[in-house]
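Training component of the fellowship. As part of building independent skills, the fellow (R.M.) carried out the full modelling exercise for a liganded target. The chosen ligand was pyridoxal-5'-phosphate. The inputs are recorded below so that the supervisory panel can assess the work.
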Amino acid sequence: MRELASELEQLEQMGLRRRLRLISGPQGPRVLLDGKPVLLLCSNNYLGLADHPRVREAAADAATRWGVSASSSRLVCGSMTIHRRLEEQLAAFKGTESCVLFGSGYLANIGTIGALVGPGDVVFSDELNHASIVDGCRLSRATVVRYRHCDMAHLEWCMRAHPGARNTLIVTDSVFSMDADVAPLAEIVELADAYGARVMVDEAHATGAIGPGGRGAVAEAGLEDEIDVLVGTLGKALGSYGAFVCAQETTVQYLINRARSLIFSTAPAPPAVAGALAALELLQSRPHRVERLRKAARTLRGGLQREGFHVPETDMHIVPLLVGDEHAAMSLCQAAIEQGVFVQAIRPPSVPAGTTRLRMTVMASHTASELREAARVIGTLARQQGLQPAMMGSIEVERGFEREPREEREERAVAGEIVLSARGDRGGYGSGRPPAPATAPTHLPEPHGASAEQDTEAFDVQALWSALGADSDQPATQQALSDSSDAPFDHERDGGLREAA
Ligand SMILES: Cc1ncc(COP(=O)(O)O)c(C=O)c1O
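Fellow's submitted model of the complex:
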C-alpha cells in the first residue's frame, strides 16, 4: 500500500506540495483570497466575462427556464435546444461547418483523440501540449510520438520515421498556456498535407483572446478550412464551463458516435451553456474587449520590462517568468500575495523540471494602474528575495521563439537536412509522400526538462531505430521515438497536469 502521508511530506520537502486556496466572490480583477483582498493575476477569465452581469443573468435565467442539470448524456435525453443554439453559434464564430459541445476541455481532448486514433495509428503530439492532450494520446492506445516543442524539422523527421501508418494525427495547442507562444500552424498544416495526417488544434487559450474578433490563432493564420478538428473551452475567455469541438459535419457526427467522454458523460448544464452563449454574444457585439485584453497585456509586459524582467514586447495575455527553483518561486508567490498580488507559481509536473515559473495572466477588466503596480510589486519582491529580474527571463525569451526563417529552411533543404515540398498553394515541407530513409536532423537542440528524460526510457528505442536502418547513437532519435501506448501511465513521465484548471 502506498504511504500517502509520507508522499505528501516528500512533496512538501521538495517545494512541490499543492494546496487549494479559497476565493470568495466571482472571478473579477480583485477578489478575496482566503479572506484577504488581492489583485487576481492568474485567472483564465481573460475577457472579464465570467463575472459580467449579462453572463450571470443569462445563467440564472437558464436555471429558471431549463433547470440546473441536463440530467443525462447527450445521446440519451440530455440534448437540449440550448445546446444546439450554442453549437450553431460556435460553428459560425469559428467558421466551421459544425460543432459539438463536451462537458469540459479535458473531456473534449480525451474523447476526440480517442475517437480519431487507436491501436495501429500514430499520433504526433507537441511535447508541451496540455495534460488533457497527453492523456488523450495515451488513452487512445495509438503509438504516441512527441515532437520537440514547435520544432517543425523534428516533427517532419518524426513523420518520416513512421511511414505507412493507416491513420495519423498531429495534435497541438495553439497558444501554449504555460509558455505563451503560438504553434506554427501553417507549417503543421503543410506537413499534415504532405504526409496525409489529420490536424487537431486546441484553442483553449486562444479562443476569445487572440485573432480577429477573438476567433483564435487558427483564424489569425487564415487556416479555418485547413484544420480538421478545432477544440475550444468555455471555461476561459468565454467565462463559463464546458468545451466544444468544431469540425466538418461528418467529423462531428463521428465524434457523437465514437467519443466516449461525450457518450458516457452528462451533457453540459443549461446555466453554463446559457452563460457561454451570452458571453459569445458579448464578444461578437463588442469585440473591443479583445483589444482591451491586448492593451492590458502590453501594459503588464511594459511594467515588467521597466522592473528589468526580460519579457518580449508582445500582446500575449499570458506572461510566464522563469524562476527555476520551486522554493524560491513559492516564496515569491507568497510574498506577492501578502502584498496583495495573486500570481501563481507553476511547478513540475505541470512544467518540465527546472522551469518553475510565475505565470501571470491579465484580464480585459484590469486597469493599467493595477497592472503597473503589480509589476512594481513583483519586481521589488524579486530583488528583495535575492532574485535578479534580468535573470528571470520570460520562458518565451529563454527558448528563443524566433521561428526559423523560410530562407534558412530552404538552405537546409538544399543541404538535404529536410524536405520541402512544392505541393499545394502553401508550398512548404514534405514531398507528398514520406521519403526514406529517416535521418535524424543533427541541428536539434538538446532536449530540455522532464520530457527529454521521459522519452529515453519509454521503450526500446535502439531496437526500433536499428529496424529503421539508421544510426542508433544519435541522441536526437530517442526523443522522436517517444513512447509506446503500452507503457504504464505515469504523470511524471508524461508531462503530468500541465495546468490544474
Ligand atoms: C490547452 C488546454 N486544453 C484543455 C484544457 C482543459 O479545459 P477545461 O478546463 O475546460 O477542462 C486546458 C485547461 O486549462 C488547457 O489549458
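The panel noted the following from the submitted structure. The chain has a mean pLDDT of 83. The two ends are 29 Å apart (CA to CA).
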